[in-house]
């Protein structure tokens, strides 16, 4: 039976199921209880000014109000105790290890297919499969150097993985800036609570990127961050991370390939580049290898990549694991490659490419969330319980026109977190995106980006759909 919001109570992050303040939230509860009338409004105004001065923006494609806007920030943090975070961290490590093992196998022997655990068609017929990566060996066999795993909680100890973002996951800059704003506004909270820091992310990211370099690279690899440019929705993040790491922010025209090596144009002449943290999608990376009309990439860079003279993070072709249909098989990957039982659970998922699943989905659209296999940002999805009959029927036609392009999941009772809204403090649904770095070791920042659906009852937390963010605390004890 599908698990729906209607047949399961909603878990409150602050008060739990018994209505009592959970130990991890004791400090936040005390802070809110002692807050004078009107103080919230004053602090929110200060936070908005800080965001404006710091230039923290999000580019919303198709926005009617201009290209860039601020992401709403809520002052009440989401708090995780050490014990629950330790379990999450172990599950994230396990999951990302299995995903990287899968990607290496998918581009080599495909033992998991030979064992009958995953259909080979799921790999070779995947739109994100790149034949240029076949039998190509990467340092450490790591493909997803930066992975953002979307989690939701439905009860005290039960988290589900919603998605594995293995291509170019965004949002870490907002995690860091949210912490910076909170530390400026209420520094006393950080002296009264043992909150684990996240400021080391840029250093960990740079170390991870350097660890991806091929043996031919210099002993101190030259790293750059490749951006599509200021019209990209995540351009703020690109500039922010390059600045934090102390590396050059470059566009395709800043780089060129000569003799299968990549160079950056500088006022002092060409400088060889060893590692590119690329925030450009695969198909735009090299007009000689992929889309010939791409103005964002570097002609010949895939040849340099195959020659072992430049590392790309994340690796090309990671989209085969960043796919909502492949997602269904991650528990099998964990068992097959690691010989372990999954610590974090998947949401039960129906693959509309399969006749029996499609039949169930067609008959239960009003109770399900239906997503495009390669969709992102909350666009192009149906949330059955909050959709009108007309919207469901329109979506049904879209689904039946190309069933293999969709998966469906039950509508989970996403947990809520107290949030400042116009009428005061009210519960709003949240998710969590921790960031996992894989290089010569795995590093995970304690916490991640908490996204919050600001509309009452809404389950859509995506920034592109009007969602906001919160600071995420992981306590050193509790």
TrEMBL record:
InterPro entries: ATP-dep_Glu-Cys_Ligase-2, CP_ATPgrasp_2, UCP005522. It holds the Pfam family CP_ATPgrasp_2. SUPFAM superfamilies: Glutathione synthetase ATP-binding domain-like. Residues 77-453 form the Circularly permuted ATP-grasp type domain. This is Circularly permuted ATP-grasp type 2 domain-containing protein.
């Amino acid at each position: 039976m599908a698990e729906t919001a209607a047949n399961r109570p909603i878990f409150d992050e602050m008060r739990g199921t018994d209505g009592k303040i959970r130990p991890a939230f004791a400090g936040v509860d005390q802070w809110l209880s002692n807050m004078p009338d009107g103080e919230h409004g004053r602090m929110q105004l200060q936070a908005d000014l800080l965001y404006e001065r710091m230039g923290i923006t999000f580019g919303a494609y198709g926005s009617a109000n201009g290209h860039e806007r601020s992401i709403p920030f809520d002052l009440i943090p989401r708090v995780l105790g050490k014990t629950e975070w330790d379990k999450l961290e172990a599950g994230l490590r396990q999951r990302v290890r299995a995903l990287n093992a899968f990607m290496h196998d998918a581009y080599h022997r495909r033992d998991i297919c030979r064992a009958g655990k995953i259909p080979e068609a799921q790999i070779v017929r995947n739109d994100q499969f790149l034949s240029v990566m076949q039998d190509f060996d990467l340092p450490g066999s790591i493909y997803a150097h930066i992975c953002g795993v979307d989690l939701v909680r439905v009860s005290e100890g039960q988290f589900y993985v919603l998605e594995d973002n293995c291509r170019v996951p965004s949002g870490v800059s907002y995690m860091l800036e949210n912490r910076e704003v909170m530390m400026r506004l209420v520094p006393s909270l950080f002296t009264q609570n043992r909150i684990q820091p996240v400021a080391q992310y840029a250093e960990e990211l740079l170390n991870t990127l350097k660890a991806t370099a091929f043996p031919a690279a210099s002993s101190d690899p030259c790293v750059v961050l490749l951006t599509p440019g200021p019209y990209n929705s995540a351009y703020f993040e690109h500039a922010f991370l390059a600045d934090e790491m102390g590396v050059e922010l470059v566009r395709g025209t800043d780089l060129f390939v000569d003799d299968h090596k990549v160079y950056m144009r500088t006022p002092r002449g060409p400088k060889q580049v060893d590692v590119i943290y690329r925030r450009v999608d695969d198909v735009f990376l090299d007009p000689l290898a992929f889309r010939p009309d791409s103005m964002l990439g570097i002609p010949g860079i895939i040849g340099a990549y195959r020659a072992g003279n430049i590392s790309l993070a994340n690796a090309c072709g990671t989209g085969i694991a960043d796919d909502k249909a492949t997602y269904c098989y991650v528990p099998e990957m964990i068992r097959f490659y690691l010989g372990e039982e999954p610590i974090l659970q998947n949401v039960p998922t129906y693959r509309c490419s399969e006749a029996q699943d499609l039949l169930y989905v067609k008959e239960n659209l009003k109770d399900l969330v239906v997503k495009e296999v390669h969709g992102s940002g909350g666009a192009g999805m149906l949330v059955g319980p909050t959709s009108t009959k007309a919207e469901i029927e329109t979506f049904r036609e879209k689904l039946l026109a190309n069933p293999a392009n969709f998966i469906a999941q039950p509508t989970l009772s996403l947990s809520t977190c107290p949030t400042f809204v116009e009428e005061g403090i009210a519960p709003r649904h949240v998710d969590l995106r921790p960031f996992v770095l894989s290089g010569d070791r795995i590093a995970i920042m304690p916490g991640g980006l908490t996204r919050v659906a600001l509309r009452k009852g809404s389950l859509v937390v995506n920034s592109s759909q009007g969602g906001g963010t919160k600071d995420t605390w992981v306590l050193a004890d509790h």
